Amino acid sequence: MVFGEKAMSVTEPSTTPAEDSPPAPAPATRTDAAPLGRVSVLVAAAATAGWAALVSFVPLLVLVLLGWLLAGGAGAATSALRVAGAAWLLANGVPLHTPIGPYGLVPLALTAFVAWRLVRAGGNTARALADRRAALLGAVGVAAGYGLLAALLALLVSGPDVSVSAPRAFLTAGGLALVCAVSGAAHRSGMLRHIAGQFSPAVRAGLRSGAFAAVTLLGLGAFTAGGSLAWHADRAADTFRAYQAGPVGDIGLALLCLLYAPTVSVWAVAYLSGPGFAFGTHTAVGIGGVHLGPVPAIPLLAGLPTSAAPTAGALLLGLPLLVGVATGWLVARRDTGPGLTPLVFATALSGAVAGALFAVAGALSAGSLGGGRLAMIGPSWWQLGLAVAGLVGVAAMAAGLTARTVARVRPHRTPAGGTRLGPTPTPDASPSAPDGGPSAGGSAGPATDGTGPSAPTGADGSRDGKADGAQQPAADPAAHHQGPADRPGDDGGAGPAT
User: For 238-300, what is the HEC assignment?
Assistant: First the structure.
């Protein structure tokens, strides 16, 4: 054995570095790496901002050019390019100034697509930089670059018939990009998860349930608006026929209605929750009464109510309350903490979150279609936010307390005490062998050396200390005589004996 160890020590290369080996190159200094980091942030932000703008602009450009070609190429091609640029700026919330007045009614379908691309841009920037601080700095760079592109496009679009303020385009589009890119970067870098982990269970439950209530209400508004349009389908068909634009014009009108469908859905939520909305100055559309003037001939507007809802129509106010009841029941099934106080706080917070989201949606869905009578269109953002927050919050609070106290609904918890978000996990148990021996997972039973029975165990499953000492002999007597240099695995050792 000694001869084998010596042979191994001669044949194996030494793990210690040679004395005459050249020294390792010194790492780059901080001053050398800092400019490269700044350049990397700028390059990543510029690339992702430009890609987000291009991906959101090209579909509009293709649709406008396709319509221009199908219409026989009437007018110059530059006019079609300017129309596509103006539509892209409007989707970013930038108002257009026309000879008849400002045009600021945002197509929320396009805005949602633009926001999604900006969120992806922030996430891609964070992935490229792989650092939280650099990711946030890159998101700010995305917003700045995106705003500069919007300002440049505003200068190119402006002309005698349509003009766009370049500073307004920079601030509005850049602000939208800042919110979306920072959200995407924070999500991609794990910062949102880290921040959410600092909140209490009641706060997390309120935030999630408020987002659930807002999405459910928006779907309910879309269903209501679609049902009203289907009820007045003959009126919408007459509007299509009045244009006599042919198949190309009908397709264009249908696309226009689809782009503004989310906007009308927000109006429907305002109608259901009580405040209603306006379609022109000194007008009001609500469940209690309708005061409308002449409406533009757009098929999507054929579903606007022309009179107050009947007595049974007051039941429509109960639809947001049903959403609040479902939200409260959902909160009651979550782990909000001991007692009823966290539950009350979570349900109130869910109403506040839903109201805040719809206040933003109400502000985005309001605008103008020129000056004069159509200078005020859409709901009041603060009235819509307060109404949704009150209806959802009160209904959720009542439903949550009822579920906990009367229906005895308890949050599902894991064995560790956390909230169960899915099926209860079963503990990992190693299957025992068929012959009653040790399991395949390696968890063996009491060890015996073949000379006697195993050591007795106590009531808690632990063995007696004397028995442990008696039943753990050294497996290899030579192991007690190994020095540090002879142990296999130590740095500088000679390896295993042969």
Answer: HHHHHHCCHHHHHHHHHHHHHHCHHHHHHHHHHHHHCCCEEECCCCEECCCCEECCCCCCCHH
Spatial neighbors of 102 by CB under 8 A, at least 6 apart, are 95, 96, 368, 370, 371, 375
Tokens of 343: 């539950």
Region for 311 from its dihedrals, namely left if φ exceeds 0, alpha if ψ lies in -120 to 50, beta otherwise: alpha
With tokens 């385009």, the residue in question is 169
Total residues belonging to the chain: 498
Q: What is the pLDDT of residues 349-366, one digit of tens each?
A: 999 999 999 999 999 999
Q: What residue type is 3 in one-letter code?
A: F
pLDDT in tens, 241-268: 888 877 878 888 899 999 999 999 999 9
Structure token pair of residue 484? 């540090």
CB distance 259 to 91 below 8 Å: no
> Could you report the per-residue pLDDT of 38-59, keeping only the tens digit for each?
568 889 999 999 999 999 999 9
Residue 367 phi/psi, 5-degree rounding, is: -175, -155
CB-CB neighbours of 192 under 10 Å: 14
Rounded CA-CA distance 473/477 in Å is: 9
What DSSP state is assigned to residue 488?
T
pLDDT-based confidence at residue 476 (cuts at 50, 70, 90)? very low
Place of tokens 């670059």: 145
Q: How many CA atoms lie within 13 A of 85 on its CB side?
A: 22
Q: Which two tokens stand for residue 448?
A: 């015996």
Tell me whether residue 398 is exposed, middle or buried, using C-beta atoms within 10 angstroms of its C-beta: 0 to 12, 13 to 18, 19 or more: middle
Contact in structure between 206 and 347 (CB atoms under 8 Å): yes
For 181-207, what is the mean pLDDT?
A: 93
Q: How far apart are CA 37 and CA 287, in angstroms?
A: 58
Quote the pLDDT of residue 412.
Answer: 65
Tell me how crowded residue 489 is: count the other CB atoms within 10 A of its CB: 7
pTM score, whole prediction? 0.75
Q: How confident is the model at residue 294 (pLDDT cuts 50, 70, 90)?
A: confident
Tokens for 186, please give them.
């924070």
